[in-house]
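Appendix C: a fully annotated inverse folding record. The material below is reproduced so that readers can follow the format used throughout the book. The structure is listed first as tokens, followed by the designed sequence.
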């Protein structure tokens, strides 16, 4: 997670694939939801594969605010230029 730089995002599915469990994207979401070290461990940078924000333990408004502060443009809970900034 710490390797996803500010201004970039990664999907739950891609993160699951990177850890060797490509079908565990829901488990990745569950782990992100339980992250007690946010924002130091930037779980707000993990989003759905279609560019939607997904869920966030601290509320979608804060997830969007944190992403926008890092330069990620969000409209209607969806990342603008998702394919360009998604790792």
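Designed amino acids, in order:
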């Amino acid at each position: 997670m710490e390797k996803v730089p500010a201004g970039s995002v990664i999907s739950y599915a891609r993160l699951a694939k990177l850890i060797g469990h490509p079908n565990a994207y829901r488990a990745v979401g569950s782990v992100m939801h339980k992250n007690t070290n946010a924002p130091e461990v930037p779980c707000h940078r993990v989003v759905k594969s279609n560019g939607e924000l997904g869920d966030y333990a601290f509320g979608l408004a804060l997830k969007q605010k944190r992403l926008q502060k890092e330069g990620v443009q969000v409209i209607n809970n969806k990342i603008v230029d998702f394919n360009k900034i998604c790792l």
